[in-house]
Amino acid sequence: MSDLDLAEAHRLHAGELLGFAVNALRDRGAAEECVQDTFTRAWQARATYDATRASLRTWLFAIARNAVVDHLRVRERRQRRAAAAADQVGLEARVVPLHRSPESAAVEDRLELAWALAQLSPAHRRVVVAVRLEGLTYDALSARDGVPVATLRTRMYHALRALRALLDPEGES
């Protein structure tokens, strides 16, 4: 990957990556840092990118997911340190649970879903996002995209099957 390739990748994918990070972190400033970190990591690991294994978009989303998780870990570590420091000076420290907080669990679930959606083909991803996340009916999506309803239903079936396999590889649910 050359400088020009990275610039083109940034032009094509930075907006999507930012949306992903903002959705996961609920903090635009932190999300912007994660996107910047994503492209820094991509540049540093450019020799390991293999276009036969994954698309550039999928590879960048995997890097972004790791950057967001790292950011969450740092955030939680800072909160624990602040609570410990407050406790040491006799201030009332807020309780920091040892288990995942509901907010942290929700963020991790959204990250995992976004990662899994990124693994789908564009056609399958479009159907899932439009019907399940945006609330469109199959008829409305068919009219919008010019694809028969039966085809959309088939794509949804295969997309959901793939998502189940990605999100629960051992079939535990």
From TrEMBL:
Q: Does the keyword Transcription apply?
A: yes
> PANTHER family, per this entry?
RNA POLYMERASE ECF-TYPE SIGMA FACTO, RNA POLYMERASE SIGMA FACTOR SIGZ
Domain annotation RNA polymerase sigma factor 70 region 4 type: ranges = 116-163
Note the InterPro entries from the entry.
RNA_pol_sigma-70-like (IPR039425), RNA_pol_sigma-70_dom (IPR014284), RNA_pol_sigma70_r2 (IPR007627), RNA_pol_sigma70_r4_t2 (IPR013249), RNA_pol_sigma_r2 (IPR013325), RNA_pol_sigma_r3/r4-like (IPR013324), WH-like_DNA-bd_sf (IPR036388)
Q: Which domain of life is it from?
A: Bacteria
One GO molecular-function entry: DNA binding
Lineage of the species this protein comes from? Bacteria, Bacillati, Actinomycetota, Actinomycetes, Propionibacteriales
UniProt keywords (A-Z) are:
Sigma factor, Transcription, Transcription regulation
What is the species listed in this Swiss-Prot or TrEMBL entry? Nocardioides zeae
Transcription regulation as a keyword of this entry, yes or no, is yes
A Pfam family: Sigma70_r2
Q: What is this protein called?
A: RNA polymerase sigma-70 factor (ECF subfamily)
Report the sequence similarity comment from the record. Belongs to the sigma-70 factor family. ECF subfamily.
Q: Which residues form the RNA polymerase sigma-70 region domain?
A: 12-77
Gene Ontology terms describing biological process: DNA-templated transcription initiation
